[in-house]
Each structure stands twice: as structure tokens, then as C-alpha cells.
Amino acid sequence: MNSAAPVMPLPPVAQLPEWLQAELRSNHAGELGAVFIYRGILTVSRDHQLRNFAAEHLHQEEEHMATFDAWLKPSQRSLLLPVWRIAGFMLGALPALIGPAAVFTTIDAVERFVILHYRSQISQLDASGQWGGVTALLRSFCSDEERHQADALRRYPMRRRTTIALIWSSAVSVSSRISVALARRF
User: Fold this and answer.
1) Among 11, 54, 106, 111, which is least packed, fewest CB within 10 Å?
2) What's the gap between Cα 113 and its chain centre?
3) What is the spatial distance between Cα 21 and Cα 72, in angstroms, rounded to a whole number?
4) Which residues form the signal peptide (predicted)?
5) pLDDT at 60 over 70
């Protein structure tokens, strides 16, 4: 499924409030990281079903990243993009070495965080009553991320998770929170 285009045009990023510019910087970094998660999976895994899963979701994440690439000038992006590429790749490749359950656990944890991240931004935008095109875009991307999470959960439900998988999910969530904080600033 493709991301729907925002209903309203996107304003120049420089015209947006600083808090929103920081959020968009972190969103761009996160979408870049997501692209590299799926590339890491595809580089390492030979499992046909897992490769199809990764290729399908990679396509949508590339669309998201391309939107941010076109919208944010290079000077408005995170200075840590090389770090996010490496971290994303490792976050995909390492679980792929273990197997599908580790990958689906990772994707669930990442998407759970991303969904909350986008929903928080949408809530702030709704409260402001401004920047409707930005809100529409974030809603669309959040909907895509919800589908990615649902797909991962369908393939490896929470009820089947081991203690190690639950600890891994927590670690992914904490590292995602730290990454967003850094991307907002740098």
C-alpha cells in the first residue's frame, strides 16, 4: 500500500516553529534509519518470507524518506545521518542473523515507538490548529507504520515472545528514544 499524499501543500520547513522543525529532523532521521533496518535484513537474511516482508516495507520507508529528503534542505537534516545509517543497518542485520522471530520482535518494537512518536506530533499539531498539510502527512505515515507493526505482530505475536525478546524490545525502545532526542538537537 502506498502512502497517501497530504491533502494540503507542505509549507517551507523554515517557516515552521522550531519545535516542529526539530521533530521533522528526527522524523527524517528515523525514516532513514528504517530504510537501513530493512536493507540490513535484506543483506543478511536468506529466508524467502523474511526477505519479502523486508522488501515490501522497505519500499514504503523509502517513500517516506524521499518525502522528507525533498522537503528538508540538507542544512535542516540531522548532522548524525551517518550514525543513523549504521545503527539502522545493524538493527536490521543483527536480528536477521538470529532469525525471523528476532526481526519481527525488532520491527514491532521500532514501529511501536514510531507510532507513539508520530501520534504525539499529530496531537500537538491538532491542538495548534495550524499546519494541516503537515498533520495530514504525519497521519498518513503513521498509518503506514501501524500496518508495518501489525504485519510484524501477525507473523510473531506477543504471546509467543520469550523473556529475551521482551528485554530486546525494551532495549530497542530505549535506544529509539535516545536517537530521537539526539536527532532533534543535532
Assistant:
1) 11
2) 8
3) 9
4) none
5) yes
pLDDT of residue 9: 82
Torsion sign (Cα): 147, 148, 150, 154: positive
Are the beta carbons of 68 and 28 closer than 8 angstroms? yes
In whole angstroms, what is the distance from residue 50 CA to residue 43 CA?
A: 11
The Cα–Cα gap between 139 and 101 comes to 28
Joined grid coordinates for residue 83:
550514525
Structure-block grid coordinates of residue 112: 511501536
Q: Is 62 exposed, middle or buried (0-12, 13-18, 19+ CB in 10 A)?
A: middle
Domain count for the chain, please give it: 1
Which residues neighbour 91 within 8 Å (Cβ) at sequence distance 6 or greater?
33, 36, 37, 40, 106, 110, 172
Largest pairwise CA distance in the chain: 48
Domain that holds residue 62: 16-185
* pLDDT 10s digits, 91-150: 999 999 999 999 999 999 999 999 999 999 999 999 999 999 999 999 999 999 999 999
Domain of 121, CATH number, reads 1.20.1260
| pLDDT (tens digit per residue) in 5-31 | 555 689 999 999 999 999 999 999 999
Q: Rounded to an integer, what distance in angstroms lies between the CA atom of residue 93 and that of residue 37?
A: 7
pTM confidence score = 0.91
